[in-house]
């Protein structure tokens, strides 16, 4: 099978999520904590960061005073950096030059008034470890940096691929992007949370990924810095590394426009830095507009000293100005203001605040923290989706094996007095009847299985016990093949002798007004004829597992066997489930006055087979909800399964559960579970008799399957009568139909457009207009297939057929299997 680009993208998204998701969650949570490191540390150490004034009128020490106090205690101490805050009572951070044989010098917190060395903050060591985890995963730095760089690239891939994969059809509808639907359950809820949370955090993850790649790979960092003219000194200054002071102390390039004239002494004339002069020079150059300043003193005599400072109303916490002062006089040699940098240079200087979110102020930091912590949600939901997919695939294989094993020898063996009869339109009731027989057979109670249409009502008295599985067609009517049995049993007046005991499983759909109508009618007639119920009728909406469990319990109690023991009875509702996935989805009728119609291509396991006209039962995404059925619009020779799914719009404007899930929420590549259900009442004939295919809307799916199979066989006596709203928006089938006509494999096509001015035309109108031709085709042995909506089309077609052919002829066609319907 060839993969589409969306499948490839989904596989990449899934692979990146499974391999990198857990580590990204670790990095995200640690980053969320590090974002508030300063605030947490301050809260843990209030006495350290809010020093009280020792005596009234005390004045904080200047940098020169602090350095002198340190040297008085330790003559060998060489101050390398001094960092001060304008906040009163805030301690001073001093960094000392590395001693001989050491890689880094020590740093101290000092009392601003006494230069007393203060204890290190509580929690600081833990944050150091946390930062190592965040930046290098606790690995050696040279190894950890590229590893986190790769993870940052994986985050970029996840963000971009996730956006593309979940791109909604209604792009401008905010609810399609940002609404969390808590009515969903199971896999659908996980997908919804995963997709919506990803949309909220998308920008944050793009920023985090790009900045992480910048820091993770030295080559990327050098290339970006070089492109914007940022040199090694600037990189070191931004990183705050120990080497920064040594590199920054080197002579600078030519003065900028705002650099005062100042002589640069030759190397031989270098002098030691005068801290008092430097401090006064800084205060003059900054005009007192500062909240944080760091003086970087050269390790040896140097004509210039670098000072970095943050203005009071700085754009963000790293929008620092760089000031180069004459070491001896404090005169300004160069003043590099952040605001004067080019836009690319400002962006590169803002990498850290972008990464932390502080670039956008306090709110931006909160958003980035939430997004970082949200990586844990993505890891959890991603793993749950992955594990659920694996469990469902395993369960499907197990259920399939159990069903095959259970039905392998007990089918319709021997008559023990138990008859299991079924009336089916789509094959669901037939399958349940056989599965019930298999379950009873496994428990030692053999049964005979027969369709109701093969029985006369009086034949029920030949069996002391009868189980009936009866589907209702449309609005409570009997299935086509059981219509004659229904008429005969309703007309009977003589009681059944002897009267059998019976159990009834009535199948229906609550969407229709008369739920399980045929089953209830059978119950009334059988009681009237003297049959004794073994238990109350069991109503089953589609494939409701609760109703199936009730049926199993009643049958087991009636025959004295434990059918609810899963070791003895396979899970009937789970039989024949197949793993599948959505390959692609296409909107077929944009601009239509009707609800959107989508074509869904689904993958199937190798060897999957079905008959033209089969139904596809798809497991609902919500626990407890029954599966939904759709007509197969393709044939096995196509290699893939095609469905036509129309969105069902509810009264509140929302979408129905399944149509929303299949046409909006489910992403290409997403796993599904389905089963292929034979549809004997709509099966295609094997010979080359003429066929008339009648339908509307999404009913084209069932007709298309038949037409494709007829075309494949080379049977060309086909007539299509089909209705939709308007040819400008709803002719999604036109190209294929024209191709069949051109090849001589579709003899006639009549189309009805209900919204085409002046009055529109419906399918039944097209039939009436071609009444003479229809009679000729029927007289020639044609089989008529009807597929589409029950309300309107199916009833209108039934009335038109009875008008054109006569009621008795239509009933004869039904009994002969020459009128086959799949309506909903």
Automatic annotation (TrEMBL):
The keyword Chloroplast does not apply. InterPro entries: FAD-bd_FR_type (IPR017927), Flavdoxin-like (IPR001094), Flavodoxin/NO_synth (IPR008254), Flavoprot_Pyr_Nucl_cyt_Rdtase (IPR001709), Flavoprotein-like_sf (IPR029039), FNR_nucleotide-bd (IPR039261), OxRdtase_FAD/NAD-bd (IPR001433), PepSY-ass_TM (IPR005625). PROSITE patterns: FAD_FR, FLAVODOXIN_LIKE. Keywords: Electron transport, Flavoprotein, FMN, Membrane, Transmembrane, Transmembrane helix, Transport. GO terms for molecular function: FMN binding; oxidoreductase activity. Pfam families: Flavodoxin_1 (PF00258), NAD_binding_1 (PF00175), PepSY_TM (PF03929). Residues 575-685 form the FAD-binding FR-type domain. The keyword Thylakoid does not apply. CDD domains: SiR_like1. The chain crosses the membrane at residues 12-36, 147-167, 188-208, 366-387. Residues 248-268 are annotated as: Disordered. Residues 248-262 have a biased composition (Low complexity). Residues 418-556 form the Flavodoxin-like domain. It comes from the Bacteria. This is Sulfite reductase (NADPH) flavoprotein alpha-component. The lineage of its organism: Bacteria, Pseudomonadati, Pseudomonadota, Betaproteobacteria, Burkholderiales.
